[in-house]
Design a protein that fits this description.
Elements (H helix, E strand, L loop, with lengths): L8 H20 L2 H22 L8 H24 L17 H18 L4 H11 L5 H8 L3 H21 L14
Length: 185
């Protein structure tokens, strides 16, 4: 409870703000938090003045000083208890994520879908060996085992199929495909 004869609030603020902030800072360890604690203390004092009136029985200044330090101490300890439950998190660096953004992912999916539709223009054998090579990363020997073709035939089908795909890609409008065209494709 604030003292009943609280002197002028501004005079108390001028006199006790710095010592109270230093005291609160010694408890909470943070200047901004200490200022918040002292602000709450003076708010409590002002609210007590409004309820109790500013003129009452004479009390000594040490009583007001003791009350301010007691309230500041209690508020600072409350602040510590409240913040003890909060786990501080490190702020993330402002480095961009290595993963592509949604627009890039969508563009890639659309390009892949368009490329897969171009595969339909190839013969079934060419389509099969290209898919086995590039979607499943199989070697020529593994493709030959799967398709029951010779390794030479697999190489020929890959070469002619990729050549035809390259020609089809060149005929497409540029915005449809954002894929780099390699000469070895």
């Amino acid at each position: 409870m604030p003292p009943t004869d609280t002197p002028d609030l501004l005079a108390l603020l001028d006199r006790y703000e710095r010592p109270l902030v230093r005291y609160a800072c010694s408890i909470v360890g943070d200047l901004e938090s200490a200022r918040d604690v002292v602000q709450e203390t003076f708010i409590k004092l002002a609210q007590g003045e409004m309820r109790n009136g500013s003129a009452a029985a004479e009390t000594t200044a040490p009583h007001t000083e003791a009350w301010l330090f007691t309230v500041t101490r209690n508020r600072a300890l409350d602040h510590l208890r409240k913040n003890r439950r909060i786990i501080p998190m490190e702020l993330p660096d402002d480095r961009p994520c290595a993963a592509p953004g949604p627009a890039t992912t969508l563009d890639r999916r659309e390009s892949a879908a368009s490329l897969f539709s171009l595969l339909d223009a190839l013969s079934p054998n060419q389509r099969e060996v290209i898919r086995l090579k590039f979607q499943n990363d199989l070697s020529y020997r593994e493709i030959a085992d799967v398709t029951q073709l010779s390794v030479t035939n697999v190489g020929f089908l890959l070469h002619t199929g990729l050549k035809k795909l390259r020609a089809l890609l060149r005929e497409q409008p540029l915005p449809d495909f954002d894929l780099p065209l390699r000469s070895t494709l």
